[in-house]
Write a structure and sequence with these properties.
Length: 153
């Protein structure tokens, strides 16, 4: 079947298998920031945006993306670099494997919630799993980051 969508602001048309996942489709399109962690929709590593909403691409059939706007980390590079720099300066960096999904979730939260509470941050990121840090230090600095970028941007 032929799939037509917008990927990181550019139109894409590609033939896919009917059972293809969005994760595999995106990787075939060169979006290597989209990673597989569990393939069951439980870890958040494969988070992308579909029409601006964070979504787990491993559990989303590619065919459902017909006509939609898909954004991966490659599509928000400048914004992601700002968050990564902030995390490093605050000592909240991590190994990096789960970072793309985490960053996509945080940037989605930034668009959706204005000055979230710690409880809202934890709830929003509950679907993201980090095996090396558990996101303790990241969660601690996110309220500060979000307040700064939302008030300055």
């Amino acid at each position: 079947m032929e799939l037509h969508l917008t990927l990181n602001g550019k139109p894409v048309s590609k033939t896919i298998a009917p059972d293809a996942s969005l994760l595999n489709f995106l990787r075939e399109c060169g979006c290597h920031s989209v990673r597989s962690g569990c393939d069951t929709g439980n870890c958040g590593i494969c988070t992308v945006w579909v029409d601006g909403q964070p979504l787990l691409s491993c559990a989303y059939p590619a065919a459902r993306a017909e006509g939609k706007n898909i954004t991966t980390l490659e599509g928000v590079k400048a914004e992601a670099d700002e968050l990564i720099r902030y995390m490093a300066e605050e000592g909240a960096d991590q190994c990096g494997y789960c970072s793309p999904g985490f960053i996509m979730a945080v940037l989605g939260m930034k668009r959706e919630l204005q000055n979230p509470t710690e409880k809202e941050v934890k709830h929003y990121l509950a679907g993201n799993l980090c095996r090396c840090t558990g996101y303790a230090s990241q969660t601690r600095i996110l309220q500060k980051y979000l307040a700064e970028v939302q008030n300055n941007g």
